[in-house]
Amino acid sequence: DLALVLMTYRATPSNGIPSPAEMLMGRRIRTPIPACPSSLLPLYPEKSFSKQLQARQ
């Protein structure tokens, strides 16, 4: 199913950068891949992280 593939792709972090879904919602989203429930709790990134992303661009 294309929707599940896209959801899993958007929920996957890479190279120390949170996933796109995590940056948007401030928490990890549920996927069909098993995850620890505590990892799904909201965690808002620091402002310094936003500055790091802007510096990379």
Protein described:
Helix content is 44%, strand content 0%. 0% of the residues are buried. It is built from 3 helices and no strands. The protein has one domain. The chain has 57 residues and is an all-alpha fold.
Q: Could you provide a short overview of the structure?
A:
The protein has 3 helices and no strands. The protein is mainly alpha-helical and 57 residues long.
Write the layout of secondary structure elements.
Layout: H1 2-10, H2 20-25, H3 47-56
Q: How many beta-strand elements?
A: 0
Distance between the termini: 32 Å
Count of separate DSSP helical elements: 3
- Structural category is mainly alpha
Radius of gyration: 12 Å
Instruction: Give the proportion of residues in helices.
Output: 40-55%
Mean pLDDT: 78
Percent strand:
under 5%
